[in-house]
Structure to design on (465 residues):
């Protein structure tokens, strides 16, 4: 028996007429035995049980109405009825979008062979983001026959998530060779994403076991960082420079900055902050090993990035440290930061290549606020020492301790009265605290009112009133 071909009018016994409301009308000369064998829809239409089967020519012409947007998919579907689909050739689908359209037609017209072939194809090939969204919109309504397509989008169980998280943490904190930096950075970004609560809940809820493992991994990272610091400090400068240790130093600082983010999300940053404070003097000594201008800027930026996160944790009470350590961290990092900012600003403003290294303005502001908070939490005598040095320093503009100075002046002025009041009423400590708080709030409120009046007067002057 000769092979039947679509469009062969000499052997065809039925016409498939595709029509749209927009007036598109195409005829395809087909063979009833092929249509009946492969499509339930055509089998029903060509059956003697179909209500219009006795009407003249109704069995010789089958009309199929479709939307204009789906017309090409219906055409491709009819042509595929004549193709031997055995899985050996996938180029017949012409991409995900076309295969998805054909699949919808195959489901509608009841063709299991084409449905299976489309599902196998779509389940195996990569999708673009827009294609994935379309699949999510269309496939769920097709029932169990199309479910395999969604396999890659289904959520996995919590034990699987834990395994991949812990494996990624170990890799991200392992300080791999520089050729693997991109892989490490990607792992770090995804770990942070897994713990982030945005429109969806975090992918992982960290328990004590996970927190313990993360802490150990970061502890190992910090240990290698300390060893690197010792390499700088106890080996000749020439050997340090030749071995590319400064680049390794930068990589470790980037890892430390990322570790701060993760530890903060997991609320286990105490040990890291403590270790960084202890290593501060070493870090500041190593920064001096940077040679070229670009290397100096990059080194200072990376160091400040980590330090700002550490100071924020201390300044906002996330990590509680003894007075001596808090005072040390201010005295160690304040001179470095105040000298580094104008240098970084001038270089990154005038050098186009250095613009990529420019530090986020919000980070400078956050760093300044952290310094102020730490200073205000020190004993008043230590505050006075820091403020005296600040008022006589050429870099008085940053960090700006104006707020700390105002609060110190207010506290100092009312100290005797406040303490005397508390002494007289030592059994009513809470009242003394309330008295102090009320006066401080009143003082700050008066300053706000005064500032608002000044602003209004300035605005009136600018408007010519």
């Amino acid at each position: 028996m000769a092979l039947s071909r679509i469009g062969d009018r000499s052997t065809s016994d039925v016409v498939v007429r595709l029509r749209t409301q927009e007036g598109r009308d195409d005829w395809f000369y087909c063979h009833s035995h092929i249509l009946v064998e492969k499509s339930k829809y055509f089998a029903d239409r060509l059956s003697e049980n179909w209500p219009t089967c006795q009407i003249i020519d109704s069995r010789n012409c089958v009309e199929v109405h479709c939307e204009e947007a789906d017309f090409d998919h219906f055409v491709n579907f009819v042509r595929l009825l004549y193709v031997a689909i055995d899985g050996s050739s996938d180029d017949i689908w012409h991409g995900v979008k076309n295969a998805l359209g054909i699949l919808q037609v195959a489901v509608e017209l009841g063709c299991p062979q084409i449905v299976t072939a489309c599902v196998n194809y779509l389940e195996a090939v990569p999708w673009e983001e827009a294609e994935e969204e379309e699949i999510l919109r269309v496939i769920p309504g097709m029932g169990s026959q199309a479910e395999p397509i969604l396999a890659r989008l289904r959520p996995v169980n919590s034990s699987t998530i834990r395994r991949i998280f812990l494996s990624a943490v170990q890799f991200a904190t392992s300080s791999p060779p520089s050729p693997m930096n991109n892989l490490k950075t990607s792992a770090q970004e995804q770990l942070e994403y897994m713990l982030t609560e945005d429109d969806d809940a975090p992918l992982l809820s960290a328990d004590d076991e996970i927190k313990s493992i993360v802490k150990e991994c970061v502890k190992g990272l910090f240990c290698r960082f300390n060893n690197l610091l010792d390499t700088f400090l106890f080996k000749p400068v020439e050997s340090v420079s030749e071995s590319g240790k400064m680049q390794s130093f930068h990589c470790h600082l980037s890892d430390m900055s990322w570790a701060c983010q993760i530890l903060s999300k997991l609320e286990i940053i105490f040990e890291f902050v403590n270790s960084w404070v202890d290593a501060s003097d070493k870090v500041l000594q190593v920064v001096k090993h940077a040679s070229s201008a670009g290397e100096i800027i990059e080194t200072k930026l990376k160091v400040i990035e980590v330090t700002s996160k550490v100071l924020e944790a201390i300044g906002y009470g996330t990590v509680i440290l003894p007075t001596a350590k808090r005072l040390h961290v201010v005295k160690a990092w304040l001179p470095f930061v105040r000298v580094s900012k104008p240098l970084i600003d001038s270089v990154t403003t005038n050098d186009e290549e250095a613009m990529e290294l420019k530090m986020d303005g919000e980070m400078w502001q956050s760093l300044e606020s952290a310094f102020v908070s730490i200073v205000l939490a020190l004993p008043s005598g230590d505050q006075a020492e820091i403020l005296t040095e600040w008022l006589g320093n050429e870099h008085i503009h940053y960090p700006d301790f104006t707020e700390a100075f105002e609060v110190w002046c207010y506290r100092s002025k009312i100290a005797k009265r406040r303490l005397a009041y508390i002494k007289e009423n030592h059994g009513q400590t809470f009242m003394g605290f309330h008295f102090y708080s009320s006066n401080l709030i009143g003082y700050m409120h008066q300053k706000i009112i005064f500032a608002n009046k000044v602003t209004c007067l300035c605005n009136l002057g600018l408007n010519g009133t």
Summary: The two ends are 101 Å apart (CA to CA). Residues 90 and 121 are 7 Å apart (CA to CA). The mean pLDDT is 84. The longest strand covers residues 14-19.
